[in-house]
Amino acid sequence: xxxxxxxxxxxxxxxxxxxxxxxxxxxxxxxxxxxxxxxxxxxxxxxxxxxxxxxxxxxxxxxxxxxxxxxxxxxxxxxxxxxxxxxxxxxxxxxxxxxxxxxxxxxxxxxxxxxxxxxxxxxxxxxxxxxxxxxxxxxxxxxxxxxxxxxxxxxxxxxxxxxxxxxxxxxxxxxxxxxxxxxxxxxxxxxxxxxxxxxxxxxxxxxxxxxxxxxxxxxxxxxxxxxxxxxxxxxxxxxxxxxxxxxxxxxxxxxxxxxxxxxxxxxxxxxxxxxxxxxxxxxxxxxxxxxxxxxxxxxxxxxxxxxxxxxxxxxxxxxxxxxxxxxxxxxxxxxxxxxxxxxxxxxxxxxxxxxxxxxxxxxxxxxxxxxxxxxxxxxxxxxxxxxxxxxxxxxxxxxxxxxxxx
Length: 406
Fold this sequence. Notes:
Blueprint: H1 6-23, H2 27-42, H3 50-74, H4 76-94, H5 100-125, H6 133-152, H7 180-186, H8 188-201, H9 203-215, H10 222-232, H11 240-255, H12 257-264, H13 271-280, H14 285-311, H15 314-325, H16 331-349, H17 363-405
């Protein structure tokens, strides 16, 4: 892999020599200035500088719209084909006929898959928020399907209202207990789409590092700079974090497809480094994305599904509630809302929401709803802050380029 970038290495060495010959007067002064600029950008947030943040956010939005418009104009043939395809699909959607039942089915499946793919992309990209949509959306969905499957002794929930609402089927359940495989099959589509979204979200670090290597430029990206510093000080690394990053980098570089697959198949907070490594060493796109897609959408998602399903199996949930009641002093008071919540869900599954425990009064469901609202609001705020900081970064880079030309 390293042989593919020999020319880029020579260009990079040439640039380094020019820098030492006088383009940059003092590397320590430059690094200190970049550190100050980074701190200045991080202070551009809504709760510290609201007016400046909003102004930069709108300016960055306009710049992005302009760049996307120019890219679309340069690819007008692709744009025309997409518009023609959309026109054909629109005509098919609105023209009456026997095909409408298939159109409605495909529409529902498309938006359902797009919903989970979008959540996966948000979870992987995060835009600086660390928003893990598995904990907020996919995990609770798998848990609710698991609890309902054991309560109904079936996964044949009527559609509609499933997946918006889970209700036990009217027909008598088959004899025997619900199987683990049946629950896995029921949530496989959602889990695989979410995993595919996380794989797509890993592409930006790969493309950034690949473009930087091919152009020989020094990108003003903190993660890429940390990666290059790690390569320079690889032999002297002592702390655990540095050694872990080096292990990931060596695995991906030396093993290739199967190394990427191994990193993508387990919960790995350092996988961004794998994307940067693959881009830096010019690993082919389909090698990187194929291994990432298989690892995240198939292997890793089945591991996570099994963990959630086993954790929320009926007998394990009952044991957990019993253990909560065994806590001295506060156990019974904590156990009661959990029991009420489970009982309310059982009643709801059997079409008996008009009786029994009042809906919406349990503090567990109230807390989870508020948690989701807070996380989504924080995510939106973080998008605004991130785009404002991107515009500030543009201004700083413009200042650097003007100083170099003087």
